[in-house]
Amino acid sequence: MQTALEPIYLDYAATSPLRPEAQAAWLEHVHLLNPGGQYSLGRKARAALETAREQIAAALGAEPIEVIFTASGTEADNLAITGFAHAAWNNKQPVRLVASPVEHPAVKEPLQLLAKHGAQVELLAIDHDSQLGQLELLDQPAAVATCMFANNETGAIYPVAELAARAAATGTPFHVDAVQAVGHVPVDFHQLGVTTLAASAHKFGGPRGCGFLLAKRSPAPQPVVVGGGQERGLRPGTADVASAAATAAALTAAVAEMAATADRLSQLRDHLTAGIAASIPDVIFHTPKKALPGHVHVSFPGAEGDSLLMLLDQQQICAATGSACSAGVNRASETLLAMGVSEQDARAALRFTLGPATTAAQVEHVLAVLPQVVAQARSAGMA
Ligand code: PLP
Known about the structure:
The structure is a single chain. Helix 2 (about 40-60) runs parallel beside helix 7, helix 3 (about 75-90) runs parallel beside helix 4 (about 105-115) and helix 7 (about 240-280) crosses helix 11 (about 360-380). This protein has about 375 residues and is of the alpha/beta class. It starts with 7 loop residues before the first strand and ends with a helix. It is built from 11 helices and 14 strands. The longest helix is centred in the last third of the chain and has 39 residues, at about 240-280. The structure holds pyridoxal-5'-phosphate. Pyridoxal-5'-phosphate binds near residues 74, 152, 177 and 180.
């Protein structure tokens, strides 16, 4: 039975607790020195870094040389988007960029910045079932085309292999932000046919502050950060060997458990969805059928997302609205707006994301308190 003092963590898409395997690997490697050192201690650090690179490559259908360590998923996305734009710019080609309209700010903001510097950004369309449209934009050459593997708010999984193949027909490099997918659903870099892929360790039980870009040898983006020649010159800087080892350990463990965890979580997710639909009137679900196993994204029209979060927090339940809040103002999610959801309904959205430690008892507890929470938030009204 859930006691009042035990928080129920249902915000795994924001970050996941560190896996014990990752903690052990980090502690084992944290004393190692510079992997660039030309002496035995350097070679020892280098060997650990290369082992981590090999493990990550093996888990994701890539070659070790294609693994570029970064300090976050955000950095990996920026490197790909800005780096391909700069590569086109250096080749005196027009900088045309094609993207889905539901990208994470880690992709969207570099696109907006590049647009300010003269790049032409064109967005695909999307509907409320998460079906992408205007795919003909992929039939003209571009500096880069991009679509995330799975959406951080709705959990929707997009047909990335199909989009990448269409872009490849015109020689366009394709970047996929797979931050929400890696470690949760099967991801094979070579099978996807993409040019670059971004991932983030803390989304699958690795340390916060470590990510990587899988990058084919060619075409490769220009580096965004310049300095030494580490990581194929794409991401110079002395490598964090302990975080790389912890990331590899977390990913290996997540992949080994993936099928069983996905099966268990999708059952809990379906139970949560059915329970909400049965006990609360007028709800709008945003998570489509083809989605990550642990996502439930739903609007409760008439209730402010912030009020829902606060009332759930009082019940020791950690959830999210799904969209970025700034200065305490609940903004409608740009993803939901792009999907055709009204501004009022988008502001009434709540995201539960389940993870390895989520139990059936926790889901029952949420279902027991949620009707009252929604009724209270609805009676407080929208700001
Ligand atoms: N891309 C997606 C889809 C995400 O969900 C996130 C994190 O929420 C990121 C990129 C950024 O990853 P990081 O937190 O490692 O910078």
